[in-house]
């Protein structure tokens, strides 16, 4: 749940998880997540995680609309609007998935707005959309605290609010919102561990660049990678950890990490925008052997992967499937049917071999030529 990220608010999205304030740290790993040694006792990591308010995930395949449900929605002549945090490839892909489901259900889209990470603009967008009297709104909060006030009028008017990943503060499923839809976070971590483990042949030393901010989505996703790496590949050691909040700093962080650890064979990075800096550092240092894995499918990194560069795997969000499930959850709300508090889709591990399939699964379009060119 690309899930790419421009600041804390963007982190709110399945993809753009970037903060303005820079912060980093480093140190040896002493947890189960890497560096534990082949003789250390290992426990299989938990596959569970929780939502922003402690919600328990429900797999997307549990969402069900009967033919009767679909007929009722179609008969309702309902309308809906999008109140997004940003305008990006991720958002467009998610929206395309929602629209496909809405088209099937006869729900008319009356507006689609972008706040460009501006909480005040999102509040204005809510007012603009409400003037069109939609029955449902699909959204992601730019700033959870500000969004609580911004979306209160929608709740008061009985609009069914469906959330991707980050809800307004204090809004809970079955009350102010219908439910939340995102991506399985532990599946992200396990897939990344498997990607780098395979690339390194199950042994070697790696670096770990994690999101150093208090955000439920990225924190649990990063931890899952660390836990699964330690469990699946005890002979792969995390020799240095570094936190960041501003992805623009990862190039400097990676340069220092590579200099301090010439034996480094791989790096995990929290998401694709941040991984761009690590890729640049690897190239600057002539480290063609350094293997990089990350989350959120992105064209530059995908092109490097296809051309046998440093990137060996990217775990994609399946954004169009996220959108489809947002559409179904919206239908639950319109029908007065109780939806899961937190619905999760499965991410897809993209490699050189399946990039065309992964791209279409994520964005609903064919991969651009520059990605597929070897």
TrEMBL record:
Residues 46-56 have a biased composition (Polar residues). It is found in: Cell envelope. GO terms for molecular function: carbohydrate binding. Coiled coil: none annotated. Pfam families: Peripla_BP_4. InterPro entries: Peripla_BP_I, SBP_2_dom. This is Monosaccharide ABC transporter substrate-binding protein, CUT2 family. Residues 88-325 form the Periplasmic binding protein domain. Its main location: other. It comes from the Bacteria. PANTHER family: D-ALLOSE-BINDING PERIPLASMIC PROTEIN-RELATED. Belongs to the bacterial solute-binding protein 2 family. GO terms for cellular component: cell envelope. Residues 1-23 form the signal peptide. The keyword Metal-binding does not apply. Transmembrane segments: none annotated. Keywords: Signal. Residues 28-61 are annotated as: Disordered. It comes from Micromonospora pattaloongensis.
């Amino acid at each position: 749940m690309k899930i790419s990220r421009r600041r804390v608010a963007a982190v709110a999205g399945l993809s753009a998880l970037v903060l303005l304030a820079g912060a980093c740290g480093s140190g040896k790993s002493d947890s189960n997540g890497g560096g534990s040694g082949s003789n250390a006792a290992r426990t299989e990591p938990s596959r569970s995680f929780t939502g922003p308010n402690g919600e328990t995930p429900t797999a997307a395949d549990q969402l069900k609309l009967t033919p009767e449900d679909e007929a009722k929605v179609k008969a309702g002549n309902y309308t809906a609007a999008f109140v997004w945090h940003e305008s990006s490839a991720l958002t467009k892909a998610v929206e395309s998935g929602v629209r496909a489901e809405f088209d099937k259900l006869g729900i008319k889209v009356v507006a689609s707005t972008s706040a460009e990470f501006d909480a005040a603009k999102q509040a204005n967008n809510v007012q603009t959309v409400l003037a069109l009297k939609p029955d449902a709104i699909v959204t992601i909060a730019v700033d959870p605290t500000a969004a609580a006030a911004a979306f209160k009028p929608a709740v008061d008017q009985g609009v069914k609010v469906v959330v991707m990943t980050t809800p307004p503060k204090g809004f809970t499923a079955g009350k102010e919102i219908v439910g939340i839809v995102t991506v399985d976070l532990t599946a992200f971590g396990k897939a990344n561990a498997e990607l780098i483990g395979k690339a390194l042949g199950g042994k070697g030393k790696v670096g770990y660049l994690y999101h150093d901010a208090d955000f439920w989505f990225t924190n649990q996703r990063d931890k899952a990678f660390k836990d699964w790496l330690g469990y699946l590949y005890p002979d792969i050691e995390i020799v240095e950890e570094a936190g960041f909040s501003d992805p623009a700093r990862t190039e400097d962080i990676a340069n220092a990490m590579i200099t301090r650890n010439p034996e480094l064979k791989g790096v995990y990075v929290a998401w694709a925008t941040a991984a761009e800096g690590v890729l640049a550092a690897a190239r600057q240092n002539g480290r063609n052997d350094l293997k990089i894995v990350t989350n959120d499918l992105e064209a530059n990194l995908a092109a490097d992967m296809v051309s046998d560069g440093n990137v060996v795997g990217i775990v994609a969000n399946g954004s169009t499937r996220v959108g489809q499930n947002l559409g179904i959850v919206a239908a639950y709300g319109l029908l007065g049917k109780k939806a899961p508090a937190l619905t999760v889709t499965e991410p897809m591990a993209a490699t050189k071999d399946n990039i065309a399939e992964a791209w279409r699964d994520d964005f609903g379009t064919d991969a651009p030529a520059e990605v597929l060119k070897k």
